[in-house]
Amino acid sequence: MKKKIVVCTDLGPALSLLTLRDDLDVVVWPDAVDTECPRAWLLKNVQGASGLVVCFKERVDGEVIKAAGPGLRAVSTISVGYDHIDLPLLASRNIQVGYTPDVLTDAVADSAVMLALMASRRTNLTTSVVTSNAWSAFQWTPFALSAPQLSTTPFSAKRTVGFLGFGRIAQAVLRRLTFGFGVSDTIYTPRPEAPPQVMRDAELLRGLMPNLHSLRAVDMHTLAADSDFLFVLAPGGEATRHLIDESFLRRMKPTSVLVNNGRGSVVDSTALAKALKEGWIWGAGLDVIEEEPHVGVGHVLLAEPEVREKCVVVPHLGSATHDTRAEMARLTAVNVLRGVDGEQMESGLDLGRWQ
Ligand SMILES: O=CC(=O)O
């Protein structure tokens, strides 16, 4: 009997890696190119599957595992995050889990730097000067709309860049900032659950980046107080929920900029709106928000002009470049194939940590 693989998401041309195998029955959510997979479709079609392909929008929990039945061997997600997957449950059933770290590191790091620049320059406000037809009335005086600067210059004060979570993506942001922006002072808090390998890499960084004069692990208090630019690159889940809350934001500098490319749940949106409105911090660039995708003009960070002008929001697109998404899709397909074939995935989670 053919093994069944259920694909809930768009894999682009990489789907053919699955469909070209005539020993597989590949069932694809028919509208995967344009829409997210409805839960009901997943629950109905996953029955009898050996492999399941999802994106971070599909929760893989007890209900899905029960609907799949005992033959499920592999779950492969097209994401680096895995907080949508019940890992202890899958570990207890010996189901392999594939994900897509590394290949998206550069794209997300690019996006984080973009958000830092957009938030510091308040592009929501400045572009609206043009789009609301107000440029001709705008009084161009030397300090009008001037902003904190990310790059360090010979005449600027030392810039401290902070990282909440210091894994691969944070380190890729740091590479961009030290080489391209002259940042020399960096602080970080280790990511909860960081694998030892990631932290060893952090120690090596100083040797690799001659411009980096200082790289210090600090507590949350110092991270808040000292960061001129703070990059949140921590994973979601209970351990990191609302680490950036009102008391953290109150300790930050009025010229500081917060960027979140990790998970929305790490930052308390209501506290952030208050921080922006009352000027505890300068600006925020958000690729993720805790209430996503239910974020519209009525959202606490977008409803009031004093907040919206200081806040750039992008709908969770950090890794969305042509090259990166294609490679993520390839890896996702290879992972599920390896899993259903009983081989080790090219990029699988070590579930020993969740057993
Ligand atoms: O958020 C996106 C991902 O986890 O890849």
TrEMBL record:
The keyword Transcription does not apply. SUPFAM superfamilies: Formate/glycerate dehydrogenase catalytic domain-like, NAD(P)-binding Rossmann-fold domains. PROSITE patterns: D_2_HYDROXYACID_DH_3 (PS00671). The keyword Ligase does not apply. Residues 113-318 form the D-isomer specific 2-hydroxyacid dehydrogenase NAD-binding domain. It holds the Pfam family 2-Hacid_dh_C. Residues 24-346 form the D-isomer specific 2-hydroxyacid dehydrogenase catalytic domain. Signal peptide: none annotated. Keywords: Oxidoreductase. Belongs to the D-isomer specific 2-hydroxyacid dehydrogenase family. This is Glyoxylate reductase. The lineage of its organism: Eukaryota, Fungi, Dikarya, Basidiomycota, Agaricomycotina.
